Amino acid sequence: MNYRLIVNIAISLLKARWRQTLVAAIGVTFSITMFIALLSFMTGLNGLLDGLILNRTPHVRIYNDTKPTKRQPVTLAPENKSAHNFIHSVKSASGRLEIYNSAAILDLLHHDGRVLGVAPKIVAPVFFNAGTIDITGVVNGIDVQAESSLFHFNDYIVAGNAIDLKNVPNSIILGKGVAEKLLAELGDVVQVTTSQGETMPLKVVGYFQSGLQDFDKVQCYTSINTAQKLLGKPNNYLTDIQIKLHDLNGAPAVAREYGGLFQADTEDIQTANSQFETGSFIRTLISYSVGITLLIVAGFGIYNILNMMIYEKMDAIAIMKATGFSGADVNRIFIVIALSIGLAGGSVGLIMGYILSVVINHIPFKTAALPTISTFPVNYNPVFYVIATVFSLVTTYLAGFFPARKASKVDPVVIIRGK
Amino acid sequence: MSEVILQATHIKKYFHDPVTVPVLNDLSLSVNKGEFVSVVGKSGCGKSTLLYVLSTMDTDYEGELWIEQELVTGQKEKQLARIRNEKIGFVFQFHYLLNEFSVLKNVMLPGLKLNKYSAEEIEHRAMERLKMLYIDDLALKGANQLSGGQKQRVAIARALINDPAIIMGDEPTGNLDKKNGQIVFDIFKELATQYHQTLLVVTHDTEFAQNTNRIIEMEDGKVIRQ
């Protein structure tokens, strides 16, 4: 097959109608540009919103919940095994919140290949004493380094240094909301009282702002050691173990497995945050449908141009067929025309789409809810460019397919006799 | 007995719209190598229809058609295209040059399609043909910059590019004035006498027909004299 000749003829036909060709190509360019910009921006935004929660949420969390024992003693007694037992007004016992044998669990987790990282944590409800009033809050004893590397803890520190938690003894990072209520400046000392009534002075070394107001009004952070001291517990006391996995989707299975293995409560990210996935999915779906609609409209533009071209070039098609070009050759010529419009328009569109994404990425976007963000977020995922390329070629091919088939069916006898 | 280039036996063809009318009625003819044949007849006698059947472009007929001992009837569209490309040169009443291309490229196109020679060789051959028809100086002009007579000569050069077994013409002088018509006829004559090119020309120009080797006269879809 003589493709050079076919491409040659296609180019000549395109040149003869370069204005319309340009319009059709611009249509493709525009739609690809918008497709890429829209998806990059939308998924960037999705990533940001999801990150707000998901970045800070462990994939699997191991903890001990305060709840009534599932199997009450009466059912455990051998003489009652065969009977139905009714107990009314069951209450939760003052169970221990700590995770049993935490050192061994941590050791096992560090050796599990599926686990990306582990961050132990102590959660304790406290009161902050400010003058005459007490403000409720939650102190999280954390391993600063693990927390930063796994859950981007650093990103949310708006004043002070996260690592000071570790370096300064008896230090605390206050939630922005808490700090405002306490009127606590960096370097101030705040009085913290636990639910057991123990009071301890802690030095403020930073502010924390997550962007979720309710969260920032209660949450505060100290190091694990400080938390243990505050609660008067030994240094193997942990209430939570947060796990980040290599594969997020494996979380539910891993959570179940650990729950059985460690005799503790476990929670996976999918269960904890299912609504976020739904939101992201819908937003992505909308972006894709808008982008694809644009491409289809551009496809109709190409279809139009080719149809016009075929009517105009009826004579040329007829004579080419008379002089030995087969229907398949003519078909190929018009498919090449369609694809080259798609390819040219599409590749310019890819570049323009990238440029537009960069521009969006530089538009200032400041909001109190998102302290770490100063411009609109954009996701430069190469997958979008691949999808756009494939889609532009597919739509232009389809747009060219029917006109090309029509051209290939032109009967030279009818045309030539018609003159 | 010289070689038979084109043979048609018992060709029948009907038009079906609006009613079925026979156009070609059990028509047989053959053309030998080197012959300059003209087909004449009144308007509507089916001479153009015959030409399109013989040219393989019209496949809706009964009977058999042979070109250079190769049975053409029943071949696939792709094969027919190849046969037209290789063995048949066309000259129509209207020139049908492609305005997007230069004169030279127009002449080269069927040669490039055949792909038997390299592009340079085809260009050389195209120039030869243009020289033969005294229009080599127009080679690089656009097809739409030419006069009617010049265009028709380019069309003849295009028909010759693949050394076809036969050249078919459908009123090749019909659109030209007397002078240009004469030039075209002289070219045909020269092709027949000097280059032993086989030619089959449909015309209603009796003067043109008179000067050919053989006249096939048609009436009502039949050959009445040849």
UniProtKB/TrEMBL annotation, chain A:
<feature type="domain" description="ABC3 transporter permease C-terminal">
    <location>
        <begin position="290"/>
        <end position="412"/>
    </location>
</feature>
<keyword id="KW-1003">Cell membrane</keyword>
<keyword id="KW-0449">Lipoprotein</keyword>
<dbReference type="InterPro" id="IPR025857">
    <property type="entry name" value="MacB_PCD"/>
</dbReference>
<keyword id="KW-0472">Membrane</keyword>
<comment type="similarity">
    <text>Belongs to the ABC-4 integral membrane protein family. LolC/E subfamily.</text>
</comment>
<protein>
    <submittedName>
        <fullName>Lipoprotein-releasing system permease protein</fullName>
    </submittedName>
</protein>
<feature type="transmembrane region" description="Helical">
    <location>
        <begin position="21"/>
        <end position="42"/>
    </location>
</feature>
<feature type="transmembrane region" description="Helical">
    <location>
        <begin position="285"/>
        <end position="306"/>
    </location>
</feature>
<keyword id="KW-1133">Transmembrane helix</keyword>
<feature type="transmembrane region" description="Helical">
    <location>
        <begin position="333"/>
        <end position="363"/>
    </location>
</feature>
<feature type="transmembrane region" description="Helical">
    <location>
        <begin position="383"/>
        <end position="402"/>
    </location>
</feature>
<dbReference type="GO" id="GO:0098797">
    <property type="term" value="C:plasma membrane protein complex"/>
</dbReference>
<keyword id="KW-0812">Transmembrane</keyword>
<dbReference type="Pfam" id="PF12704">
    <property type="entry name" value="MacB_PCD"/>
</dbReference>
<dbReference type="InterPro" id="IPR003838">
    <property type="entry name" value="ABC3_permease_C"/>
</dbReference>
<feature type="domain" description="MacB-like periplasmic core">
    <location>
        <begin position="21"/>
        <end position="256"/>
    </location>
</feature>
<dbReference type="GO" id="GO:0044874">
    <property type="term" value="P:lipoprotein localization to outer membrane"/>
</dbReference>
<dbReference type="InterPro" id="IPR051447">
    <property type="entry name" value="Lipoprotein-release_system"/>
</dbReference>
<dbReference type="Pfam" id="PF02687">
    <property type="entry name" value="FtsX"/>
</dbReference>
From TrEMBL, chain B:
<keyword id="KW-1278">Translocase</keyword>
<dbReference type="InterPro" id="IPR003593">
    <property type="entry name" value="AAA+_ATPase"/>
</dbReference>
<keyword id="KW-0813">Transport</keyword>
<keyword id="KW-0547">Nucleotide-binding</keyword>
<dbReference type="InterPro" id="IPR017911">
    <property type="entry name" value="MacB-like_ATP-bd"/>
</dbReference>
<dbReference type="InterPro" id="IPR027417">
    <property type="entry name" value="P-loop_NTPase"/>
</dbReference>
<protein>
    <submittedName>
        <fullName>Lipoprotein-releasing system ATP-binding protein</fullName>
    </submittedName>
</protein>
<dbReference type="GO" id="GO:0005524">
    <property type="term" value="F:ATP binding"/>
</dbReference>
<dbReference type="Pfam" id="PF00005">
    <property type="entry name" value="ABC_tran"/>
</dbReference>
<dbReference type="GO" id="GO:0022857">
    <property type="term" value="F:transmembrane transporter activity"/>
</dbReference>
<dbReference type="InterPro" id="IPR003439">
    <property type="entry name" value="ABC_transporter-like_ATP-bd"/>
</dbReference>
<feature type="domain" description="ABC transporter">
    <location>
        <begin position="6"/>
        <end position="226"/>
    </location>
</feature>
<keyword id="KW-0067">ATP-binding</keyword>
<dbReference type="GO" id="GO:0016887">
    <property type="term" value="F:ATP hydrolysis activity"/>
</dbReference>
<dbReference type="InterPro" id="IPR017871">
    <property type="entry name" value="ABC_transporter-like_CS"/>
</dbReference>
<comment type="similarity">
    <text>Belongs to the ABC transporter superfamily. Macrolide exporter (TC 3.A.1.122) family.</text>
</comment>
<keyword id="KW-0449">Lipoprotein</keyword>
<dbReference type="GO" id="GO:0098796">
    <property type="term" value="C:membrane protein complex"/>
</dbReference>
